[in-house]
Design a protein that fits this description.
Blueprint: H1 5-9, H2 12-31, E1 41-43, H3 45-53, E2 83-85, H4 100-133
Antiparallel strand pairs: 1-2
């Protein structure tokens, strides 16, 4: 009898990966809250998760991006197709669109959702282990 991890783990395996990527994007926004001209970014979690579940997206679809043409690309590429700009409620005079309160709230929400998926996967693995042992 073969065990299919895709069937056993469901959406949560992909959700963890996307939540990790989203945490990096949100942390980058917070780190650049005082950088003049920095534009806050985010991902459309639902659409990316749907793409991953259907097998349409690349494994490394979210990577760090450059914000200026003079920046050096990370890992030799600049793949920012999945990153969207956040619409600011009040952009600052220097052109920075990071709202630290919004970013912190989104980061916390993302963290809680990550923990939920992680706990679900942990319980799935415990269930699989119990089934394999025949207990």
């Amino acid at each position: 009898m073969n065990i299919s991890f895709n069937n056993a783990l469901g959406v949560h395996e992909h959700a963890l990966e996307l939540r990790t990527n989203r945490a990096e994007v949100l942390a980058n926004n917070l780190a650049n809250a005082d950088t003049p001209g920095f534009k806050a970014r985010d991902i459309d979690f639902q659409s990316l998760l749907s793409e991953q579940m259907q097998g349409k997206s690349n494994e490394q679809s979210l990577k760090m991006t450059t914000t200026n043409g003079k920046h050096l690309p990370v890992n030799g590429t600049d793949d920012s197709a999945d990153l969207l700009y956040r619409t600011p409620s009040q952009p600052s005079l220097d052109g920075n669109t990071v709202d630290t309160q919004t970013e912190k709230a989104e980061f916390m929400k993302n963290t809680l959702q990550y923990q939920s998926s992680f706990q679900f996967l942990n319980s799935r693995f415990k269930g699989i282990t119990t089934a394999i042992k025949g207990q």
